[in-house]
Specification:
- With 236 residues, this protein is α+β, with helices and mostly antiparallel strands.
- It has two domains: 103 residues, no CATH class; 109 residues.
- The chain has eight helices and seven strands; from the N terminus they run αααααββββαβααββ.
- The strands form two sheets. A five-stranded antiparallel sheet has the order 4-3-2-1-5, with helices on both faces.
- The two termini are 30 Å apart.
Length: 236
């Protein structure tokens, strides 16, 4: 649909060669989210982003490399709702690869856990920390700072959650912030509204945006779309 971006899509395909060597599902999801963030940040509007994403899926499918296959599966798991099914079908059409990453079946398969509210001062807004676990028990968190206008000013994926919470509690003891459990459904509502398409976000927010939207959709009150169970070379 956007032939002028052919070289851009080819660059994405080459970059996807890094994906199969990543050590786990979280790293693969963060990597994929960063690529999607670059695409969204450069798109002039939502319609252009959807067109470019469709072209990118087609380019990955045509490439048929291990990296392209892994990218399509990651996109099926955590990508925008309108692209997930298309990406899954495209991945199904890629030839069966002999060596698939061990983390492939874990993509997107997480369960929400504890949610925290961290308030560092009257001018800093709310920092919402949402913990998630993979089926194997692996823990990570989505941390989003919202301004008083409910606009994201920071989106971070945290791999070392115990270290984050230890630092937060130490800051609380020093009376530098307030840390308290928070209502998961309320947080889900706030994050889904703040992270929806069409918002004008700081540039630093885009790399984690796709993954943040996926995780926010899994919080209570959201409409999650769990990825179908994958079988070698395709989806069940």
């Amino acid at each position: 649909m956007l032939p002028g971006l052919r070289e851009v899509y080819e660059a994405f395909v080459r970059a996807a060669g890094e994906l199969p060597a990543l050590p786990g599902a979280l790293q693969a999801e963060v990597w994929t989210s960063s690529q999607l963030g670059a695409l969204e940040a450069a798109a002039p509007h939502a319609e252009g982003r959807r067109a470019a994403l469709g072209d990118l899926i087609t380019s990955m499918s045509a490439a048929g490399t291990p990296g392209a296959y892994a990218f399509l599966r990651a996109l099926e798991a955590i990508g925008p709702d309108e692209a997930r099914r298309t990406a899954g079908r495209a991945a199904d059409g890629v030839r069966n690869l002999a060596a698939e990453p061990s983390w492939l079946s874990a993509l997107g398969r997480v369960t929400p856990s504890q949610v925290w509210l961290i308030q560092e001062g009257p001018l800093d807004g709310d920092r919402l920390v949402c913990e998630f676990r993979y089926e194997d028990g692996g823990l990570h968190a989505l941390a989003v700072r919202l301004t008083h206008g409910e606009v994201p000013s920071e989106i971070v994926i945290v791999g070392d959650v115990p270290a984050l919470m230890t630092a937060a509690r130490q800051a609380m003891q020093a009376e530098l912030c307030v840390v308290q459990p928070y209502d998961a459904e309320l947080v889900g509502t706030r994050l889904r509204s703040a992270l929806q398409d069409g918002g004008d976000l700081p540039e630093d927010c885009y790399p984690a945006l796709a993954l943040a939207r996926h995780r926010a959709s899994l919080l209570p009150g959201g409409v999650s779309q769990p990825r179908p169970t994958a079988s070698p070379g395709g989806s069940a």
